[in-house]
Amino acid sequence: MKGKTTRRPPPKKPSNNQKDPVGVYCRVRPLGAEDEECCIEVISNTTIQLHAPDGLKANRNGEFKETQYSFKKVFGIKTTQRELFADVAKPLVEDLIHCKNGLLFTYGVTGSGKTYTMTGSPGQGGLLPRSLDMIFNSIGPYQAKRYVFKPDDKNGMEVQNQVDALLDRQKRDSQTSVPKTPTTRRTDPEFADMISPEEACKAGGVDEDSSYSVFVSYIEIYNNYIYDLLEETPFDPIKPKPPQSKILREDQNHNMYVAGCTEVEVKSTEEAFEVFWRGQKKRRIANTQLNRESSRSHSVFIIKLAQAPLDADGDTVLQDKSQVNVSQLCLVDLAGSERTSRTRAEGSRLREAGNINQSLMTLRTCIEVLRENQMCGTNKMVPYRDSKVTHLFKNYFDGEGKVRMVVCVNPKADDYEETLLVMRFAEMTQEVEVARPVDRPICGFAAGRRQRNQAFKDELTHRLEERGGPVDGESPTVLNQLLQSFHPLPPCEISGPNDDVTLPRLIEALEKRHKIRQMMVEEYNKTANMLKSVLQEQDSNLLSKENFIQEQRGRLGEKDKMIQNQKNEIDRLEKKSKMLEYKIDILQKTTNIYEEDKRSLQHELESREQRLQREMSEKRRMETRMQGIVTDAKLKWEKECERRVNAKQLEMQNKLWVKDEKLKQLKAIVTEGKTENRQPQRPSREKDKVAAKRSVSPSPVPTGPLVRPLHRRSHSAGGERWVDHKPTTNVDLDTVLQPNIPNAIKVNAPNEKALSKCDKYVLTHQEFASDGEIQTKLIKGEVFKTRGGGQAVQFTDIETLKQENPLAASRKRRSSETGPDGEPMERNWTDVETRCSVAVEMRAGSSLGPGYQHHGYPKRRKP
Ligand code: ADP
Ligand code: MG
């Protein structure tokens, strides 16, 4: 009745952050006798180099391919089993003894030396026998008696009381079928054949105040079924029962275990090794019976080490389940990793092979996902459940423990391609990390209990030997002392009937003795009573102490629970913080991307703004330039317009004047006719005056019939007099060539008086020529006397004076010279006025048009 059992802290969630990568080792086996070409070279104690064999090189266009792979350590062909063990498995065994779990597996293609590495051969024991040996060498003296530890069927371990254990032991001894049959000895190698005693290893730091016990299980996974190789099935030679497969379960600490799997308690390396061979034998038999290929199965040898502290006295194992620690080391010899096509498997064998490959594939996938999760902080589900092998070892990867892998390679060229795949898997595996196991707390008893107990026992036997004979408890010493304290009895031989000395003396002596006896009885009773009371007192003391301890245990349990809860909480928070960190990281990255974008956009914006600015200023410049051109053109045109208006006015006036004159002449004819027909009716002076006034304006050749034939007045040269008529509207053209008539009467408007005095008339008339230049016409005529006494002018002659711009003429010439066919090509264009008009026209029509191009402005894009 040692109180309630508190749950062992589950190793499921490691509270430590420390992680170790999976230790991957590489072992290169020697080439076989018939193999010649080698494709592997060990180039350092951590690196190997693979080179493609000749045949393959040719296939790949002669491409010379060499690849290097690094490992925690590389073991060359000369490596002994002992050296390999010291590097690879020894630390795992040490961990096992210190309550930490370990997993060691061999990986490689068939024939690469996995089994040789794990099991070995006589004289060359592999990792398994060596591990067993080291375990027993270390805990040998501290092993508990058989059946003290007893596995429950839930992957846990109980401590039996001594009586039950003893009964179990007796039962075992009475059974004759103890697996120490001489028949197996002959065929299977014994442990002694595997390892020589001088190679023995021993772990340090074994807790002497604990008691240990080793249990082994041996299973085989074939075609994704689990078989117990140690299960004792009654052998039926007539109808052998096919082996029953086992299932995996999860225990209360979330560890996976094979439900109902035999766990054999072994007390020595020899015994353990014998059990191993028993399993091997069963495996061989099953393989032959069921026509299976052993290279296609995974074999798992599980060494469980149970340890519990000795009680305070140091003589029995503390019967408290919560104090029992169980650690295990799994030694796995995996199936050959080669692809199915390599072996000539057919039908169901092929399917099986597929499944086996499947389990290795799942292993690879799990490792891949684990690595990705760990490296990228993702939380992808690892598909452990997809195969039994990975499911069984799930705890090692997501719980805690040490995982090591020995990659076995055969350097022969035939294996090159498969070896390449093995190497890739190995490289990937090295990147996976597994939580480092934590140290477990030791129980609260004082250290050195076992030694003290041993010393006490030694002392006791020593004393017993001294006193001679086994007498109960302390009585021999006390009795002897008491016997010695009595006086010897006087001689009690009676000499005769009258001897009355002897008897009284004897009586006296006896009475004395009786008295002493009574005294002693009294003393004894007194002491006994005292002792009783003391014992009672002690008892009650003990009881209260026990109560106290009970109470403390309860509290401890609560505290444990609290600690566990807090640990869980911490775990949760840690996970959360990791997640958040990851998120922050992502956000940071996103921000960076956005910032980069922003910067580039800003840059672009700036450059665009600059371009816009440039274009704007360009536009402004162009605008001012255009404005200049427009005002220039406008000014020019205004001037031109004014000039043309003036000329037109002049022309119109002249026309008016001519018409007036004609009218006047007509009138004169009419009036003259009247005077001839009706003499008395003479034109009034007034009317004549008006007519005369009218006739002043020069008129073109008279349309009406003249009364008398026209004849020129005879006059001598120089005797003629001119009326020089220059209308006020005429523009002063600043010309050199000017009509200069001597003795002329200059008038702005012709009058009768001037005409009567002269016989010649000249009108200076300005008008536009066809080319737009002003030309001056001198319209000459002769003055006649009309019958009515008035004057008439008959125009006879016109002289034309024309001004020409020589610059324009020369330009015309030039342009005509450049013409390809001698024609003045751009005549219209080179003319100043046309050009202006075109420019203006362009300005009016389209805001910016081809007119600009004609003016020689640089070509530009339309906005
Ligand atoms: P696997 O288990 O990988 O199929 P084995 O362990 O059965 O391969 O090895 C095949 C053969 O090669 C065996 O005969 C074994 O003795 C031999 N062998 C393997 N590795 C070595 C080694 N390192 N040194 C010597 N022989 C070896
Ligand atoms: Mg093998």
Automatic annotation (TrEMBL):
Residues 673-691, 824-834 have a biased composition (Basic and acidic residues). Residues 175-184 have a biased composition (Polar residues). SMART domains: KISc. Signal peptide: none annotated. It comes from the Eukaryota. The keyword Phosphoprotein applies. Keywords: ATP-binding, Cell cycle, Cell division, Coiled coil, Cytoplasm, Cytoskeleton, Isopeptide bond, Microtubule, Mitosis, Motor protein, Nucleotide-binding, Nucleus, Phosphoprotein, Ubl conjugation. It is found in: Cytoplasm, Cytoskeleton, Spindle; Midbody, Midbody ring; Nucleus. ATP binds at G108, V109, T110, G111, S112, G113, K114, T115. It holds the Pfam family MKLP1_Arf_bdg. Heterotetramer of two molecules each of RACGAP1 and KIF23. Found in the centralspindlin complex. Interacts with RACGAP1; the interaction is direct. Interacts with ECT2 and PRC1. Interacts with ANXA11 during cytokinesis. Interacts with BIRC6/bruce and USP8/UBPY. Interacts with ARF6, forming heterodimers and heterotetramers. This is Kinesin-like protein. It comes from Sinocyclocheilus anshuiensis. The gene is LOC107672275.
